[in-house]
Amino acid sequence: MQLLLAIDFNAPTALGVPLGVLILIYLVMRTLQQNQGGGGSIRRGPTVPGVRCPHCQWNPAAPDYWTCDCGRSWNTFDTHGKCPGCHKVHSTTQCLSCGNFSPHNHWYR
Ligand SMILES: [Zn+2]
Ligand SMILES: [Zn+2]
């Protein structure tokens, strides 16, 4: 236990981000691998105004993210479905709450 308590979560790493952030990323990646077919992750945070799932009325939060085929993760409502990595436009968006796919335009109210 002494060793665990000695970990400084704010200690800078070789990547220039705090150790705690790296551990968080590791935990998120592990969760994603366990939930095959998820395609994204629900996180807490301020919600995106005017955006709701056409199926279950779920309101995404700003820190929620979707993953592109190219491996890039971002909030698809920041770019209207356009991947910032490979610039592919995703015409359908999967709900992270109910799992249904809907045309991206149908999310805007
Ligand atoms: Zn992409
Ligand atoms: Zn939904």
Order of helices and strands: HHEEEEE
Small molecules (ligands, ions, cofactors) in the structure: zinc ion
Give the low-pLDDT segments.
none
Strand residues, percent: 5-15%
Share of residues in helices = 10-25%
Total helical elements: 2
Largest sheet entry: 3 strands, antiparallel
Taking strands numbered 1, 2, ... along the chain, how are they ordered across the largest sheet? 1-2-3
Shape: elongated
Number of separate strands:
5
Q: Structural class given helices, strands, pairing?
A: alpha+beta
Radius of gyration (CA) equals 17 Å
Tally of discrete structural domains: 2
Distance between the termini: 51 Å
* Mean pLDDT over the full residue set: 84
How would you sum up this structure, described in words?
The structure is a single chain. The chain is an alpha+beta fold and 109 residues long. The longest helix has 16 residues, at 19-34. The mean pLDDT is 84. The protein has 2 domains: 1-34; 40-109, no CATH class. It is built from 2 helices and 5 strands, in the order ααβββββ. A hairpin with a 6-residue loop joins strand 4 (92-94) and strand 5 (101-103). 10% of the residues are buried. Strands 1-2-3 form a 3-stranded antiparallel sheet, with no helix packed on it. Bound molecules: zinc ion (2 copies).
